[in-house]
Amino acid sequence: MNTSQRTAPMDNKLCHEGRLSLYCYLTTTIIVLIATVPQIYYGTVPNVWGAAMWGPVLYYALINMVIRYLLRDNDYQIAIRSTFLGFMEAASILVILFASDDLKQFGVYAFFMAFFHYSEFLAIAWCNPNSLSTDSFILNHSIHYALAAIASWIEFALEVWLLPSFKSFYYIWLLGVVLCTTGEVIRKVAMITARNSFTHLVQHEKADNHKLITHGIYAYMRHPSYVGWFWWSVGTQIILLNPVCILIYTIVSWKFFHDRIFMEEITLLNFFRSDYHKYQQTVPTGLPCIRGYTLD
């Protein structure tokens, strides 16, 4: 995997990689929807299981062939990831529009998943292009992240099969939509507010442009990006109405951010010393029952 980083001056313009990803993401979403929605709506799709997805998959394959012909190296790596997420966005919208009622919420879940991963890359491209790489999509976050997602899909499928009526409480899974939306907004506002000081990886050496951010959303919580990710994570499972995964995701996510914040604040205290200590005294972490590392 190509994870080369971009080096570019910081300004208010979206960098080349960001523009390329946006073109690929939006173009794929629009082409797949425009080509597919009329076919399904007017009933021209064969009445065969899965036939509604044959067209979208074909369009996606053709788009990838064009990308393979036109782009190389890092541009190609960015384009295929953006195209994949654009296709997933389009497919999720098709599920929401045309799938049976017990599957619509999976389309909503997939929509939030695809948007989250794409918007992570776009936000970094906008606010801190110097740290931008293909890893900024965080599609390869960790094996644990992948296993957690697969576990949620398995639980959803089993419950749709064995307890289909259990998935019909739409007024409950709408709470998940609210949580995912709120979490997404909080996280992206945090990233844009921090700008150059935000990275996906915990920094162990202080960069020259690394500043302590205490304004904006950081005036209300010390770790808004983690707050947003936590509630987004829990919200995805409420959308799916996965009782087992709701509990597991809540516990595991809380433990992950508890440990992550504890270790990160040791570094932040080393970087900013008394300034960060004073900041800790007046602003909470933002996550329930997590105090972080304190000197008291």
Which SSEs are present, and which pair or pack?
Blueprint: H1 16-41, H2 54-70, H3 73-98, H4 101-127, H5 143-162, H6 170-194, H7 224-240, H8 243-272, H9 274-282
Helix pairs in contact: 1-2, 1-3, 1-4, 2-3, 3-4, 4-6, 4-7, 6-7, 7-8, 8-9
Q: Could you explain the architecture of this structure?
A:
- There is one protein chain.
- The chain contains nine helices and no strands.
- It is 67% helix and 0% strand.
- It folds into two domains: 1-138, no CATH class; 141-296, Four Helix Bundle (Hemerythrin (Met), subunit A) (Up-down Bundle).
- The chain is mainly alpha-helical and 296 residues long.
- Residues 1-10 have low confidence and may be disordered.
- The longest helix has 30 residues, at 243-272.
- The protein is globular.
- Mean pLDDT across all amino acids: 90
Portion in beta strands: under 5%
The CATH topology annotation of the largest domain reads as Four Helix Bundle (Hemerythrin (Met), subunit A)
CATH class of the largest domain: Mainly Alpha
Annotation field: number of helices: 9
Helix content class: 55-70%
Distance between the termini: 44 Å
What string gives the helices and strands in order? HHHHHHHHH
Q: How is the biggest beta sheet arranged?
A: none
Number of domains: 2
Rg over C-alpha atoms, rounded to the nearest angstrom = 21 Å
- Number of E-state strands: 0
Which quaternary structure do these chains form? Answer: single chain
Shape: globular
